Structures are given as C-alpha cells and as structure tokens.
Amino acid sequence: MSRSRLRRNVLFMVALQLVNYAAPLLVVPYLTRTLGISGYGIVATGLALIQAAVVITDFGLSMLAPAEVVATLEKDRSADRLVTAVLTVRAVMAIGVSTVAVALSMSAAGDRADLWLAIILGIVGLSIQPTWYFQAMERMGWITTYVVVTRLLYVIAVMAFVHSGTNPTLVVVWFGAANVLGAICGLVAMRRVGYRYQQPDVGLVVGLARRSLEFFLSRVAVASYTAGGVVFLGLVAGPREAGDLGVAQQLYLVGQTAIGAVVQAIYPHMLRLKDFALLRRMLLATAVLTSAAPVIMLVFGDFLIRLVYGVPPDSIHEVAVLYLAALPISSCSALIGYPLFGALGRLDVANRTVIGAGLLQAAWLCGLYVSGHASAELVVVGVLLVEVLLLVTRLAIWRKLASSSASGAASVREGGVHLG
Fold it and tell me: Which pLDDT belongs to residue 412?
C-alpha cells in the first residue's frame, strides 16, 4: 500500500475516533448528571461486561483475520471462503456467550438479572461487525461510515429516552440495539466491496479457530486490565467504585482509541511493506503527544471533571491522573505490538507478552480481593505497573531480534565475500 493510501486510511480512522470521542463526551456527562455516579456505575459495569464478552466471541480473530486475508489475497483472487469461516466462528461464539448470559440472568436476582439480559444485544451487535474485514481490505472508509451510524443512534436514543429515574440497564439496551443496526450496515457494505457468502468449510473453520487460540488468549489478557477493572469493582466493591473508575477510564480510552486507530491503519501496511522507518517516527510522535495528557489532568483535572461530568472530582481526579500516566506507555507498547512484530514475522511475541501482562494484572486483582483493598485507585496502579513491564519487555525483545537480524546479515555478507 502506498504512503498516500496509508495517510487516507489514517485520516478515516482519525475521523472515526473523533466520533468515538464525541459520543462519550455527550453521553457520559449526561448520564452522571441524570442517573448519578452509582447509576452510571451500573451502566459502566454493563458496558464492561459487553466488552469482556466480545473478547470471547472475537476469539482473537480481529488480529489474526486481517493477516490471513492479506496472505490469502496475495496467492488467490478471492478470500471469500476464509471470510465466511471467520464470520462463522464469531457467530457460533456469540450464540454460546449469549446463552450463558441468559442462564446467568435466570440465576440472578433484581437489577443483576436485568443487566445480564441487557448485554445480549451489545454482544451480538459487536460480534458481527466486520471491522477486521475492511481493515484487511484497506477500506477504512466503510468502518468509519457504519460506526458513525452506530454512535449517532446510541447518542440520540440516550438523550431521547433516558431521564432521571430511568432504569440504568436501558442505557445498555440502547447501546446494544445501536450496535446491531451498525453491524447490519457493515454486512451490507461487505457485499458492496465484493464479498460473496460461501458454504462454510468445517475443516477451514476448525483450523482457523485453532490458529486463533493464542490471539484469543492475548485479547483476554488485554481485557483483564481494561474492562476487567470495571467488572471487578462492579461485582466486588459496588457501583460507586465502578462509577469512579468508569469515569476516569473514559478519559484514558479517548487516548487509547486514538492510538488504536493508528494501529489498525498501519498494521496491514507493516505486514506488506515492513516500513520500520515510518514506525519509528510514529513511536516518537506518539510518546511526545501522549505525555502531555497526565500533565494536563494533574493541573486542570478538578476543573475539567466538574465541567465535563458535572460531579465533584473527589477520588476521580487521582484515578484519572494515574490512568493517563499509563497512556504514553500503553500507546508505545501498542505500536510495538502487532505492527512491529507482525512485520518481523513474530506475532507470537506480541501475543505472549500481552498474555503475560494479563496474568500479572489478574494476580494483582486477586491480591486486592483477598486483602480486602479493592478500590479504583489500586486497580489503576496495577494497570500502570503492568503497562510499564509490558513495554520494557517488548523493547528488550525488539532489541534482541534486531541484533540477531544484524548479526545474521553480517554473516551472510562475510560468507558472500569469502565465496567470491
């Protein structure tokens, strides 16, 4: 892919993220004012449960599928059989997880029973959205189109139907309904791009599921220190702590999703062209730009939280500063992850390092539970420590691989001279 097309795709993804920023900036302050922090805590727990469930239904295919589609198109004119296999795996997983949610709702009581049912639409909608397909085809404009539709529908529904006294689980229902409609738009767009449904090949589906297992474990690990924190506090410490963490996390996710857009755009570019010079420049720019976020929050945080969310800063300010301190670290780590190690043919490194990080975060949360010190501040301290260790580990491995590559190239040159 040419640099000009890469720039165009990055612009599409930046536009998408601007919409992703605008939606929470409109919805979250409205919900904290209308439902209160505890009410918003229920919403945050529901949305975090959806995010965690979608990690399961995705089964690592959001990272594996683009690489496999790219590789298939380099050899064949069509990847429709592979694309159908990806859709089949995700549909089967969505049905399975939704069935579990129904069973949990039947065994729960009160608001928690409603919440388990409310998340099903969101699980189905996000599971069948074909973002990975347009990423592989380098048609980011389609992703922007159907996600914009989804976000607008969600914002309109919340503003029109959520008022003081509204059951917070209805917000989760509107979120899911909007994502189902967005998924339908995405599937229609796939046909416009050229995809044609094929009869699922059982062998291909099973083989794809096996290859994606390691990617799935890495996505579970990531969820343990993103959605996992809010789910943990919502179930262990109550909606108030989950609400504090959820509000602070929204600020962190604004930056993280921006970097995610860049990673999605550059990933297929790196797989094809191995443009390491561009990646190094992007790493430097990312480190500089994201380092401003914790400083701004430290200085102006009280004012910004009152202005945007309409609630007293209290412990939210401290949690937000800690979260944003992790942003430069996690952003650089994300760029070094799949784009770099994918270009080096070592996606296993990206997967295994993040699995290790997830295990550390899970151990941290277990320690908080056992010690009885579950709080928003300590959950984020765990995220910060894990992100530091993940970045240091990936940098060390990158340096080792680069040294090995340089030594190998030198040996080849010396051998060539000797043979000459």
Answer: 43
